[in-house]
# Entry
Amino acid sequence: MTAMSLALILTAQVALVAGQVFLKHAMAATTRPTAPRGGMARNLVAGVGMLTAWFLLWMGLLQKLDLSFVYPFEGISPLLLVIAAWIILKEKLTLRTWLGVILIGVGTALVGMS
Amino acid sequence: MGPRDAHAGEVAPPAAMAWYLNPYLHLGLNGFLVTASEILLKRGALATAQVGAPPWLTSIGIVTLGSWWTWAGIAIYIASFFNWLHVLRWVPLSIAFPLASVVHVLIPLGAWVFLSERVAPIRWAGIALIIAGIWLIARSVLEAEEAL
# Structure
C-alpha cells in the first residue's frame, strides 16, 4: 500500500499546485486588457479541472487511509507551490518567503499528525 | 507600474480601487469563508449520520445533502472560490497560497470552539509554527506596501 499511496498523494499535490498555477495565469490575464480572452478561459477550465482531479484523488485516499496519515502531506503543498510560482510564473521570492513557507509546511504537517 | 508585459502578479492594483475590493482584505476573508464552510459541512455530516441508507449511498456522502447545514456549507464554499479568484487577480501566488494556509489554524480553532473537538498539544505546536510563518510572509507584504 505504501509506495502506491505515496505516489497517489504526490500526484494529488501536483494536481493542486498545477490547478493553482492555471488559475493564477487566468486571473492575472484579467488585469491586462491586451491579454487574449480565449487563453484566459482555457486556463480557467484547466485550473478547475486540475482542482477537481485533486479533490477526487484526495477523497479516494481518505476512503482507504487515516486522515492522520494523509493530512501531514498537505504540508508539502506550500513548498511545491512556491517552487512552481518561482519557476513557472517567474515570481520574485524573498528569503523570508522561503522561511515562512518552510515554517507553514512543518506546522501544517504537525497539525495533521494528531 | 506602467502597462508592461508583466508576469503573473506583477501588476499593481489600481490606486483608486474601492476598499472592499482590496485583494488582501479578500485574502483574509478567504480563510474565514473556507473555515466556515468546513464547519458547516461537518455539522451537516453529523446531522445526517443517523439517516438509514444503503452503504453505497452513504459512502459517496449523498445523504449529507439532507441537511441545510450541508447546503449552507456548499454555498459558502462556492463563494470562497470566487473570492479566491479575485485574490489571484492581484496577489502573487507565492504570497497568496502560503497566507491561505491560515485555514490550518482557523479550522482546528473553529472545531474546538464550535464543535467541541479536542486540540492535542502537537496540534497547538503546529498552529504556532504556521502563525510564525504567516507573520514572516505578511511582514514582507506590509513593508513592500509601505515602500510604495
About this structure: The two ends of chain B are 10 Å apart (CA to CA). The CA atoms of residues 50 and 63 of chain B lie 10 Å apart.
